[in-house]
Each structure stands twice: as structure tokens, then as C-alpha cells.
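Archive transcription. Copying these from loose printouts into the bound notebook so they stop getting lost. Printout 1 of 2:
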Amino acid sequence: MNITVVGSGYVGLVSGACLSEMGNNVVCIDTDQGKIDGLRKGIIPIYEPGLETLIRKNMASERLSFTTSIEKGVNHGEVIFIAVGTPSDEDGSADLQYVKRVAQSIGEQINDYRVVVTKSTVPVGTSGIVKATINQALENRDLSISFSVVSNPEFLKVGAAVKDFMKPDRIVVGVEDDRALDILRNLYAPFNRNHERLIVMDVPSAELTKYTANAMLATKISFMNEISNLADCLGADIESVRIGIGADPRIGYSFIYPGCGYGGSCFSKDVQALHRTAKEASYDARILSAIEAVNNDQKRVPVNKIVDHFGTDLKGKKFALWGLSFKPDTDDMRGAPSRVVMEALWEMGATVQAFDPVATDEALRIYGERDDLTLFSDTPYDALTDVDCLIVVTEWRVFRSSDIDQIKSKMRGNVIVDGRNIFSPRTVTEAGLSYYGIGRQ
């Protein structure tokens, strides 16, 4: 098929690359000329395992191309994916200005039947807005052209997005007519060869499914973080609790690892947007309001433990930070706990030596050159020289088998604040270091 993807951010690039890998002819559109110029040269603006290889391969095979021309994209694609950003507005609702702008452009350029697919994460009712916007643009042109609007939310995990797209656990499609459904079935047929993954429903249900999935995952994380704080108060070990409840198949082990909070662009934004949707429907969604409150507090837990140990005057103190990205296998620092921790340390007068395998450039872009920040990306031990305390913020695999003796020898202090519970408290304390975990004794 000829496919157009409007938006060359995280979702758009992954979707375009993976659809072209299945033999489709894909055109990706973005209004950022610099980004498009870079993509044409094989410069990928985000770090995502496997994505660069996939893009380069399909560009070489001429199945994947990039442009700033919406006219070219609308004329090209039998299916047009809207994959632009929907950032949080001031009131917490999803900002739909970019989605509306794309819908307007489609209506101004469309000349034949098209399936318009909302891939962006959007609140319930957005597909109706897209449909009305296209219809209004057609009316302004004094034209009557048939088209379909479909909701097809993405369920991609940052750090595993290519794998998730190529081998999805489900493909949710909200659709109103059989013609569009047949086209989407044909498009996704290569992803269903093993077994049927397509879940067909009405459009509002598909839009709500995406928000509900992220809110549920965020709920599990915040709930376990709440219990980890209670474990601290009661002298319990949250790791034992985690294993005890995870063995229950009704609960399972996924997303019940306590830590210093979740980050990224999705969970916080989507929980806030769903909460706003509930308010607009005159429903008091009390759990949704608590999820974000707990998570925001959780990001400060490592800081609280540092203050309990060192006090609030950290002038002359030096801290090693392991991990800058909000999770492993990405350079994304949006909403990352590392930012809360670093900024709090700087405010109290401390300096930071941070290590991350891929996110140091992003940290430099955000904070610029600072006298109180030194960045390392070769080995985590580089960041430990003469520090008073090591803080683990992101659970990169490279940290899992760290040499405690080497850590101790590099540090001038003896404190580890383990924001992801990657160390054994016993191993750390037997090495003569003070250990502060999340809900661990």
C-alpha cells in the first residue's frame, strides 16, 4: 500500500519505518525542515534500539521517504496516519491543535477516498473533531469526497518500540465502516500471520482504551511506590512484598517494581488528560488524581533520603548520578526523576557527576555547560571519583553487576542511595557502605 505518516516524531518514525519494512511505500511528513533534511541524510533525531537500521534500510530500498509537503503526502497515501504530538495543555487536557491542523490540511488537499487514522494519543471524541474539520474544509472547497476516520492507538514501549510494532500483542482499531476496516485488515495482515491480533471496536472505545492502558500501568507503579514508602515506615522489605504479591496470577510481576517514580512523555500526560476528560464528563476520578500526586512525590524520595543523611547544606558535597534518561534504552529525559534529583542537589549547593550510556547529549541540550555538572558516557565508574554519595536513578543493565569494591575505592564517601533497588542491601553494607533503598531495610 501507499502510506502517509504525518508527524516524524517518536510514534511517526517507528510506524513509518515498520510499515515500510513490510513492503509498503511510506512517506513521512514533518513541518520541521531541519529534521526532514537530517532524516534524508540518515540522521535519526531520537535514540530507539533498531530504528536507525530500519530507516536506513528502507530508505535505500526506496520504500521510505521524508518530506515537508502535506500536498505530496495526501496525494500519496491511501491510508494517512496522524502521528503528531498532543502535549498537555495548561489545564491538563490534551492539546489538539496539531491534530486539527493536520485534519484541516487533509481536507484542503484530499481528492479521492482516504482512510485517515488517528495514531496520536487523543481523548475520546477527537476522531469526531477530525471528521468535522475535514468535512468543513471540503465544504469550503465546494466538494463532496468520501473518507473514513479510524482510531488506531499505539502501544509502543520506549526502548522496545520497533519490537512492539513488528510483533504486537494487540492491534486496536476503532472503526465505523466496513470499507475502512477491510483496508486496515489488509494493512495489518503481515503482523497477524502467527495469530489474529486485531481487536475491532467502536471509535470512542478505541480512544479510551489507550488512555486506560497507560493509566492502569501508572496506577500499578504509583501503588507499589506508595507501599514501598509504607514499608520504610514499618520496617518491611518491599522486595519480599513484591515477590509475595507477584506470585498471584491475578497481579503478576509486571510494573510492580518500586523506585523513584516514572517519567517520559506518556504516562503523566495521558493520566492528566484522562482525568480532565472525567472532569468534563462531571465525574470525580479520585484514583486518577492520586496517581500523579504519588508519582511527583516519589521523584523526591532519593532527595529526602539524602537530606536525612547529609542535611540541607550540601555545599562542597559531590554526588554521582547513575542514569539520566527516564528509563533504560532511550535518551528521553522528559519527566525523568534524574532532573528532579539533580535540580534539588544544585539548589542545596552540591555538584553532580552523572553517567548515562546515551542521554548525556540530551542532558547537555537541556542544561548546557554548568560548573556543577560533569557528564560521562563511557563507564559508570568514571562518575564516582571523589564523590560523597552514589545515587542510582535509572535501571540500566550495565548497573546490575556493578563491582561494589570498585565503587567503594573510587568514592571518598560511603553512601549509596539506590532509587531502583538494583543492589543487594546486604552486599553494600558488608562492604562498609551505607545503603538507602526504596522500601528496603
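Printout 2 of 2:
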Amino acid sequence: MSSLRIKNGRVIDPSNKLDAQQDLLIIDGLVVDEKEFGADFAADREIDATGMIVSPGLIDCHVSFREPGFEEDETIETGATAALAGGFTTVADLPDTFPVVDSRASAEFVVRQSDRAAQCRVVPIGAVTKNHAGEELAEIGQLIDGGAVAFSDGKRPISNPEIMRRALQYTSMWNRAIFNHAQVPELVQGGQMHEGFQSTVLGLRGMPAAAEEIMVRRDIALAETSNGRVHIMSISSKRSVEEIRQAISRGIQVSADVSPHHLLLTDECLVDYDTNYKVDPPIRTEEHRQALIEGLVDGTISCISSDHQPLSEEKKSLEIDNAPFGIAGLETLLPLCVKTLIEPGHLTWSQLICKLTHGPATLLGLDAGTIRPGSVADVTIIAPDETWSIKTDQFQSKSRNNPFDDMVVTARVKYTIVDGEVRFQCRDAESIRSNNI
């Protein structure tokens, strides 16, 4: 029997409405009720979490680990290692690989690679259409048998409404969500940034907010008629938030997540044509940024995702017209959320942790995002007041495409625990005390 006690921490578990100063006891990879063993129980190992937050392991509802096909950007092993450094114990991997994850065998490959890496849990998201071509549904049932927890065509919008309708009807049989990149492709073709004043000044082709809003309205209508579940990835538009808010009030099964860079930045960040700020959907204006924060505060937006899109330096160093979209964001998500949500007083720590644990666990249908007694011991320990400087050259990720290098931030992940095993420990974290002789 192996045991670990986390002492003196502020334990926050939004799924159980818990926010208290107490110890957390883990035995054989499970959280246990300490009352059954007594405060005098001598655990094999101890972590002193004085002044720290003890949270359920963070969950990211969509990342791109690129394997197979684009291992120069990231692999499942390097991505899972980066996830641990960011405090994540579970991530859902998008199927935008080569070949696409559109068969049972390809979904099982992701699961096997995750098991081999033995870092965080990586669960596959299956493709909606074969080869992401948008013409024929993938083998949904077989993908579920292979471990798929949701369905998406990644950064390719499901533009054919009949395909989307049939996919929603089919996935509703298993109560799985379809994650759509909400965009009308014809309206954003060739675009580099948000369409508006800044794009005009910089001479860059714009991507109008209407491209997202039109697709969001369509998806809401199809979800209503099919009784399916649709999830909008990386929402970025004020009107999209309003549409989803109204749809939820009508009982339609629609949800959304937002990424930290859309909460922190505006389109003015591209004034120097830095490709690290080039993301899809694009970073928009202050009006949209404020609406996204309001959507988090009132519960319209249920999850925060890094939208981890790692890209090799060779790809991102191209001129802005040719550089691909994306930020490698797993290792900076937590401090950026603190900067834009906790420090200004928009969310409490409990509310933020809910968006990173209980919200995505519910979305993905996972028995995770909790530290109730009897649950698997996936735990993140955070130093909420520690100030540090982001250094992209120290990332665990294979890629460095992140615009926040050298930014001074607050809140740092000190330990990440999976299955009761400490799999990440910050280099300056206190050594784990062992009671073994």
C-alpha cells in the first residue's frame, strides 16, 4: 500500500463545493476520507502545501499534439510532458493529424502512445468526417469503441449543414459532443487577423467576426432540431457569446470554451507583425474581449482551453502572410488566466478552477475533475502568489511559438499528480518528504 499526504493546503474542489484549509490523503492512487484513517496515519510521503492551492487535476478540452504526421511540431509524449508542467492531468487531443484520427485503430494509437508516455492522460477526439474532407461521416461508433470522447474536424469548420445535422443526430445516440471551429470558410479565406481598423492600418486581409457568428447561429439551429450536443471551440466574438447565452436559456445543448490569449490581448498586438500573435480565430477588439470575460463570469462559457497549437520555429518564422496560425499555450494558461481573470477580480479561484476541471470533465463525459473520496487521485498543487517570468526556451513542449516570453506573471504549478504519483515537480519546489526508513 502506497500513500501520500498533502498537508496544510487550501483544497478547492468546485464539483463538491469545497474550499477549505485541510489535508488531502491519497492511498493506492485514490483520494480517501482521512477520517477513516485518522490524522495520525503516517503516510509514506508528504508534501507541505502551506500557502498553496490543492485542486483537482486540470483538464484541457482540446489540444493538438500533431502525432502522427507532424512530429516536428509536437509528439504525444512531449505534449503530455508540457501538459504536466502546465498543471494538466488530462487533455483531449484533436484529430488533425496525418493520417486523421477517423478510425478505431487511429484512436487506439493515441491511447497507446499516451500509455507509453506515462505522463498525463491523453484522450482522443475523433474526426467527424473521413479524412476531414467534410463529405462523409467517419465511423463514429468504431471511434467511440477506440476511446474517442468527442468529435471534431479540428481547425476545419464543418461547413456542410447536412453533414453537421447528421453528425449531431448520430453522436446524440452516445451523448457525445461535436466540437466545431465555428467559421464560414469563404468569409475568412486568405485572412490573417481580425477585420477592422487595425487590419486596415496594417494592410492585412481581415477575418470578420460575422464569419464566426453566422456559423454559431447555424450550429445552434441544428443542435435544436437534432437534439445533439454542439461545442464551439475558442469562441472569440461578442455576438457569438450573446447567441449562446440565449440558446442555453432555451435549453439547447450548446456550449463553448475560450482561450487565454483571447481574454488578454486585442488585435493591436499585431502592430509589429509578430507571427506568434497570429491565431485562428483571430484576436479581436476590446469590445469582444470584454464580452468573453462576461461570458465566463455569467457561466455562458463553461471551459477555458489553451487551444495548444505547437508549431516548429521554421514554420512560425515565415512572413505573416505565410506563417500558420497557433500558440503553444499549455504551459502558460494558468498564469495568464490569473492575470486576466483573478487579479482584476472577475473570477474567484474556485470559479477559475471550475472552468479548468469540472467544466471540461462534464463536457467530455469524464469521471475526473474532482477530488472527492474514492476518486482517482489526479491533483494539481498551485502556488497562487508566486511571481515568475515566462521563459519559452525552458518549455517542455517541442515548440516555442508563444508570444509571452519574458512576461512576469503570478501563480505557478508546483506539483502535478496523476494516479497518486507525482509526475511533475517544479524545479524550485520543496522536496517531497518520505517517512520510509
